[in-house]
Design a protein that fits this description.
The chain is mainly alpha-helical. It has one domain. Helix content is about 75%, strand content about 0%. The longest helix has about 35 residues, at about 20-55. Keywords: Membrane, Transmembrane, Transmembrane helix. This is PGG domain-containing protein.
């Protein structure tokens, strides 16, 4: 049915694309503009993270003059947070970059939905990166300003946590939609690919 052609020689898929050509162009243009803006944010975050990582002084690792944890523990939290943040931020940049490739560099049958999924995955990766950036900022500030009281890290974490909660409270529908679409994408891919992976090689 999908490969049948009408009297003008078009398949159902080709006919759909021809009748929605302008709408497709408009949707792709908006997605590229959004991805282009978000890739700048991701680039800024990864630049700040790397810059902070190479400027933190490493000395007196076994010192106990930092609040809450030993200095060695704060260094561990800091560098692990920076590493995870950089990985997720880099993955978000890759997702956004693949969504804004010029038309001559992507398959002709790439749909708007696929570009939407790329932006969704990039946005989730960027949010996770921002979360780990909060931990990196707290641990980095504690390592630099060793004179801070014990309530300093708690206060900073509370402010950051409050900012995230306000964001989720205002945009919870958006993130619910994002997460549901991502889970749907994963389930569709698993349904399509898993039987093939589990099949006996002799049956393929």
């Amino acid at each position: 049915m999908k490969t049948m052609r009408n009297k003008y020689g078009f398949t159902p898929k080709e006919l759909f694309h021809r009748s929605h050509k302008e709408l497709h162009k408009e949707s792709v243009s908006e997605l590229k503009a959004l991805a282009n803006t978000l890739i700048l944010v991701a680039t800024l975050i990864i630049t700040v993270g790397i810059s902070v990582a190479i400027t933190i002084p490493i000395k007196d690792i076994d010192s106990t003059d930092t609040p809450i944890f030993r200095k060695k523990t704060w260094y561990t939290i800091f560098f692990v947070s920076i590493g995870v943040e950089t990985c997720f931020c880099a993955s978000s940049i890759l997702f956004y970059a693949s969504a804004i490739f010029p038309s001559n560099m992507v398959p002709k049958d790439e749909s708007v939905r696929l570009k939407e999924n790329k932006v969704r995955f990039g946005s989730v990766s960027l949010l996770v990166s921002a979360g780990f950036m909060l931990f990196a900022s707290i641990s980095g500030a504690t390592l630099i300003f060793t004179f801070m009281s014990n309530w300093g890290p708690y206060f900073t974490f509370g402010l950051g946590f409050m900012a995230f909660m306000v964001h989720f409270a205002l945009d919870h529908r958006l993130w619910n939609h994002f997460i549901s679409r991502i889970m749907l994408t994963f389930s569709n891919v698993a349904r399509a690919k898993l039987p093939r992976f589990m099949a006996n090689p002799q049956d393929i």
